[in-house]
Amino acid sequence: MKFKATLLTLFILTSVFLGSVNAADFKIGYVDGAVLLDQSPMTKALVAKLEKEFLPRKNKLVAQNNQLSKLVEKKQKDGAVMSESELLRLEKDIRKRGRELTNDKDAFNEDIALKRNQELLKIRKQIAELIVEVAKENNYDIILEKPSVIYASDRANITNLVLKKMKK
């Protein structure tokens, strides 16, 4: 994406310098995509949705962790007075539960990351559509995204215009 923006910028500059296009004919703006994504009501709703959806699994992991901690405490407290077979059984149970907890945490993190990424793709698409709407409404010819912009004046920044439209 950075390459495309650089190529587009190079094309515009070349056209301007060669005289085939008058710079006054272009209205160029930029947006800060990170700000749009961060301040988007859609992103805030996504965070709340994911918290609600994954809360039962999170609570289960917390309960598993608490059970494991109690077993470890029991081993530390009573290990010296336990028979060898009881101690081996307890250590085996601790290792087994530890592996299960690690696997469950990994699965939880993968699932939540996958769901978040899927939903963020939808939000990014909606944001892109809003950027196009704002650009058309304000007669912009080209909109660039901030990481690809080396310099631009504040008046070229349409991030706030898109945010206002987004919050309607």
Q: The CATH topology is what?
A: Protein Binding, DinI Protein, Chain A
Give the full name of the CATH homologous superfamily. Answer: Skp domain
Largest sheet: 2 strands, parallel
N- to C-terminal distance: 29 Å
> How large, in whole angstroms, is the Cα Rg?
27 Å
What is the CATH architecture term?
A: 2-Layer Sandwich
**What characteristic shape results from the CA principal axes?**
rod-shaped
The residue fraction in helices comes out at over 70%
Secondary-structure element order, N to C: HEHHHEH
Q: Structural class, please? A: mainly alpha
Strand content range: under 5%
Total helix count? 5
Provide the residue-averaged pLDDT: 89
Structural description of this entry:
The protein is mainly α. It has a single domain (2-167), classed as Skp domain (Protein Binding, DinI Protein, Chain A, 2-Layer Sandwich), CATH 3.30.910.20. 74% of the residues lie in helices and 5% in strands. Strands 1-2 form a two-stranded parallel ribbon. Helix 3 (41-78) runs antiparallel to helix 4 (84-137) and helix 4 (84-137) crosses helix 5. The chain is rod-shaped.
Strand-helix topology:
Blueprint lengths: L1 H17 L9 E4 L1 H7 L1 H38 L5 H54 L4 E4 L13 H9 L1
Parallel strand pairs: 1-2
Helix pairs in contact: 3-4, 4-5
Supply the key terms.
168 residues; mainly alpha; Protein Binding, DinI Protein, Chain A; two-stranded parallel sheet; 2 strands; 74% helix
